[in-house]
Protein: Transport permease protein
Amino acid sequence: MSVFTAVLKAELRLFLREPFSLFWIAVFPTILLTILGLIPSFREPDPGLGGRRVIDLYVPVNVLIALIMAGIQVLPPVLSGYRERGILRRMSTTPVRPASLLAAQIVLHFAAALGSALLVVAVGRIVFGVALPGHLPGYLAALLLGALSALALGSAVTAVTPTVKATTVVGSVVFFPMMFFTGVWIPVQTMPDPMRNVVEYSPFGAASQALDQAAEGGWPDLAHLGVIAAWAVVLITVAVRWFRWE
Structure:
């Protein structure tokens, strides 16, 4: 534990020196929510949404964007860079095992994503009057499973790509479909039924629905939580099976 703590502190210092990464994880989702909230029609109740506003739907979406940024865009190049430069291989000969470094990176990105999610919810409430999650335990359950899926997906991308360049390319290819499934361009709740039925089988489409249901005050549908958990298990299995230290 003392070794892990030392590694975590060192990685935290390095993490804080990367303002670009911090911006995309911690700041960008809130900026995007603010831009969307400044659109007058998004702040008006919509009869087609049961009297809800579009901005109400975008709070869970931007919470998920923070998770996607941390798990898919930022984490994989860091892990791949450590491997490509031989850092993981050299660490295997010291008391600081590579697993400690990987665990520290996952903890840091997980914490940054959750902090960003909290900021999104706070800005949504304070600036645009979006109600706080009505079912907090359900919201946290969906949020934690979504974060696990995002980090597992990023780890799987790292596992199947040999270089930093390849990791960045594959991560970008994966990133845009995940943004669509999350509901960035069209909220999942407003998609046509056939499209929504497909999207809900993706990890972030299911997470978007689960977060929205919890925000409305109910426990998320177990089917949605099950989809997120199943994806997390599959992606973790892929990451463990194919990850190489060098």
